[in-house]
Each structure stands twice: as structure tokens, then as C-alpha cells.
Amino acid sequence: MSKKSPYLTTKGIDQLFLGFFHAWKFIAQFFRELFSRPFETKEIIRQCYEVGVRSLPLITLTGFVTGIVFTKQSRPSLQSFGASSWLPSLITIAIIRALAPLVTALICAGKVGSNIGAELGSMKVTEQIDAMEVSAINPFKFLVVTRVLACTLMVPVLAMYSGFVGLMGSFLNVNQNEYTTYQSFIKEAFSSISFLDIYSSLFKAIVFGFTVGIVSCYQGYNAGNGTQGVGRAANSAVVISMFLVFIEEIVIVQVINWMR
Amino acid sequence: MKKVTGTIDYHKKVITIRNLYKSFGELVVLAGIDIDLYKGENLVVLGRSGTGKSVLIKIISGLLKPDRGDVFVLDKQVDRLQEKELRELRLKLGFLFQHSALYDSMSVRENLEFPLTRNVKNLTTAQINEAVEEVLDAVGLLDKINQMPAELSGGQRKRIGIARTLILKPDIMLYDEPTSGLDPITSIEINDLINEVQAKYRTSSIIITHDLTCAKATGDRIAMLLDGQFRKIGTFDEVFDTQDERIKAFYDYNFTE
Predict the structure, then answer these.
(1) Residue A132: what are its φ and ψ, rounded to 5°?
(2) What is the CATH number of domain B10-256?
(3) Which one of A69, A201, A229, B213 is most buried, counting C-beta atoms within 10 A?
(4) Chain B CA closest to residue A136
(5) Do A137 and B115 touch (CB under 8 A)?
(6) With an 8 Å Cβ cutoff, are A127 and B97 in contact?
(7) Of B93, B109, B196, whose CA–CA distance to B152 is shortest?
């Protein structure tokens, strides 16, 4: 007589669906806890500082370099058509619509995501999360809700800042090569940008921020045992966040283009 | 400190466990446990590593759910409680984790203030300071108030862990391997502290350990866990006055090695 399989389909497929189910449960718990008292205002502010202010140097550097490099790389193509005066508007469209939210989200996935994954993972394996639980403190609210909220709030702010710094980098390059003044650069830059571009960029950054926060917290909160578990949590927080950010970018761009 | 056993109320059970089963996959760790903890009593659960001792207190505190059986803590069935009721019950439980589980990112003071300020509303700064200093004084580490957990020794971390549970004035203490990883002198100090906590705060305790010195020094009763069941329950001398080879081996290994 053959032994009955404990799996509905195969082990891999069962685990995949179980993983999705756990992830959805985690997201649902986030929204349930988000609107219930007590609100951890002090901890949310602290996490906003951690996510926002501590990421500023890296965001400044990457935003600035992105602006300069993208301007330098785009110039020869436009010059060959005799259209180098379009450089400011091309760069602005690229930075505002795509680069600023995307680069910021990827930087945050790497820096903030790994940090959250490792921190929560290490708290999990050293039983600090259990210690909160048995002290009648809600660890999900204190650790997860605050971090996800901080990422959701701060990534858009950082993306806008990154866009501004990127445009400044671009202006520096344009000013050196085409001797364009600041006023004419800004006028040209924003002539081709609509409110839809800014709103969609902000929307993307909010979605990316939420994704980085929730994925990193999920990986850390459910870390396996031992130092290996912490390492895996940090690693998968970054990899899965980045993967989802790219998927979301494609989907949102399609929707925005359809609305345009 | 010499053990005082005169304050146990054998008419009042604070924890009642009946027919408790717990497995992880194919591995059965608890296979039909029955035991009671009386008010004011220190009950030591002895057993080898990996026999489910820690699982037992995690079920009692609601961190794990049993597969089968009944666990009553202060007359409440733990696995049937709603989240809010479980939180209320946990205010009456103190849990010392094996590795203390102090919050790394917080100082000793913040570690102690954290559960207090979250669970007791409208405390003034003076009241918080007084409570923190009182429990730190009770564990003899008032001078470490501003230090970070990473700056403390293993024994000091255990003491701060005990202080953190005492700040909520629990009725029941659950100690998970309180002397593991400590040198013999520090272990004796922790054993004394467990007895002091029992006497001063009138707590009832379950002490999980494989250290017979700790069991002898702190336990009013000992429960020997073997193969997922309590093989023998009684005083230290009653438990080890046996013909059971495995219990004798446990004793011999601890006291003759």
C-alpha cells in the first residue's frame, strides 16, 4: 500500500503558497495594528530619523552622481541631432519620472532593508521579541508598524530630495558645458513636467517605501535560528525588496502611461 | 542564602497542567504532562537538553500553543485566551530567558523602564525612577543603571533580566536555565537571588535547569522530565532515591564528574 503524501501538490509549491499566505497575513496584521491604539509616536519619529536622516549622505551622493552621469551620457546623442538645448528637460523627465524614486528605493533597500532585516532577525534569535511578548508589550506594533511606517513616509521625502540633488548635479554639468544659467535651466527643465509626473513619482516612492519596509520586517521577524538565520534575513530583505521594486516600477509605469 | 520553605500554600494552585502534548513535526517533546505549581512554591523541572523543558514554560506563557491538553495559569486557560486577556495574564508572569534577552539597543535603565511605562499608565518620572532603583537594588546592580547590556557579564545580564521581570511585580516567575553558562560562584549567587525573590516578592516559580546544584538549592519540589513525561516528582532526595538508571546517571554525571 502506498504512503499518502502530506502535501496537496508538491512540497515546493505547497511551501510557496504557504509563504504567500503568511506574507499576506503579515501585511493584514500591519494594517490592523496601524489604526489601533496605542500609537508609538516617539518610536515612529526615531525610526523616521534612522531611515531618513541617516540615509541622507548616501542619497545625496548617489542622486548627485546620477544627475551628472546621466547628463554626460545623454549629451552626445542629443548633440548629434542638434538638440542639446533639450538636455535639461530630458534629464528632468528621466529623474523625476523614474530615476529619483527608483534609485532612492534601491539605495534604501540596500541600506535600510539590510539594517532592518538584520536588527529584527537578531532580536528574534536572541529571544528579544519573545521577551517583549511576555512583558505584555505588542512587539509587532513596536517593531514592525513603526519601521514600515517610517519607510513609507521617508522614502518619498528622500526621493524628492534625491531628484532635487540630481537636478543640481545635472545643472552643474550643463552650466559648465553649455553655459546655461540657473534660471533658464530650471525654466527649461520644468517646461516638460506635469503634475501627473510629480504625483506618480511620489506615489511610486510611497509604494517602494512600503515594500522595502514590509519585506525587510517580514524577513527579520521570521528569521530562522542562529547567526545564519540573521544573515539570511538581511540578505533576503535586500534581494526580495529590490526584485519587488522593479516589478512595481514596471506595473506602475504601465498604469501611468495608460492614464497619460 | 539558605532556602526557606515555610510560605508555600499547598491548597492554592497557581498553575495546573493536564495531559499536555507538544510535537515539532515528527519529534514528540511533551507526551502527556500533568503537574501543578502551588502558591509560593519553587518547582524545578530537570531534564537533559532538548527534552522539552523550555517548551513547557513557553506554553505556560502563551509563546507556544499546545497540541493537546489543558494549561491553566491563575485559573485561566492560556491557549483559549484572547490577545488582550493573554496580555493581562502576562503582566502577572515574569520570564527569565536563557540568554537573558535584554534589549541590546537600550541601556539597563531603559530595559527596566520599557515594560513598566508600557503597562502602567500615568507614572511620574520620580515613580519610574523609584521602581527601577528598587529592583536594581534587589538584584544588587544599582551601579550598572546607565550601562549597556553589552558591557555586562553573563551573571549581571541574568540579574538584570530578573530585575526586568520583577519591575511588574509578577505572581509567577519562569526561569529558563538561570545558571547555564555561568561559573560556579556566579551560579550560587543566582541561586541565592532566586530564593531571595521567592521570599521577598512571594512569587511561585518554575525553574528549568539541568544543573543539579541549582535544583537542590532552589527547588521545593523537583520534576524529572524524561521522554516527554515526568518520571518522578518530589523533593530532591525523593527524586534521586531511585533505582531508575537514567535518573541515577543524571545524578552521577552532575556530582561525580
Answers:
(1) -65, -45
(2) 3.40.50.300
(3) A201
(4) B87
(5) yes
(6) yes
(7) B109
Question: Does A38 sit behind a cis peptide bond, omega within 30 degrees of 0 on the bond before it?
Answer: yes
Render A137-196 in DSSP notation, one character per residue: --HIIIIIIHHHHHHHHHHHHHHHHHHHHHHHHHHHHHHHHH---HHHHHHHHHHT--HH
Q: Spell out the domain ranges in chain A.
A: 39-259
B6 pLDDT tier (thresholds 50, 70, 90): low
Amino acid at A191: S
| Positive or negative: CA dihedral B198, B201, B202, B206 | negative
Q: In what order do the strands lie in the sheet with B172-176?
A: B93-96, B172-176, B204-209, B42-46, B221-226, B229-234
Find, in chain B, the residue whose alpha carbon is nearest to that of A130: B63
Asked whether B13 and B204 are in contact (CB, 8 A), the reply is no
Q: Which residues pair with B174 in a beta bridge?
A: B95, B206
Nearest chain A residue to B121, by CA = A38
What is d(CA A168, CA A162) in angstroms, rounded to the nearest whole number? Answer: 10
pLDDT tens series, chain A, 260 aa: 556 677 777 778 888 888 889 999 999 999 999 998 888 899 999 999 999 999 999 999 999 999 999 999 988 888 888 887 888 888 999 999 899 999 999 999 999 999 999 999 999 999 999 999 999 899 999 999 999 999 999 999 999 999 999 999 999 988 888 888 888 888 888 888 888 889 999 999 999 999 999 999 999 999 987 888 899 999 999 999 999 999 999 999 999 888 87
**Residue A130: CB partners within 8 Å, gap ≥ 6?**
B58, B63, B95, B97, B101
Q: Which of A241, A16, A30 is nearest to A116 (CA)?
A: A241
The pLDDT tens digits of the residues spanning B9-54 come to 888 999 999 999 999 988 899 999 999 999 999 999 998 888 888 9
Helix A146-178 × helix A195-221 angle, to 10°:
140
The residue type found at B58 is K
Q: Where are the domains of chain B?
A: 10-256
Q: Is A41 on the interface with B (CB under 8 A)?
A: no
Using a CB-CB cut-off of 8 Å, the residues of chain A touching B95 are: 130-131, 134-135
Query: Would the CB atoms of B164 and A135 count as touching at under 8 Å?
Result: yes
Q: How far is CA B33 from CA A67, B83, B228, B237, in A?
A: 67, 25, 7, 22
Q: Bridge partners of B46?
A: B209, B224
Residues facing B73 on adjacent strands: B15, B76
Q: Name the H helices within chain A.
A: 11-34, 41-52, 56-80, 87-93, 100-108, 114-125, 128-134, 139, 146-178, 182-191, 195-221, 226-259
Chain B CB within 8 Å of residue A227 CB: no
Closest CA to A256 of A74, A93, A108: A93
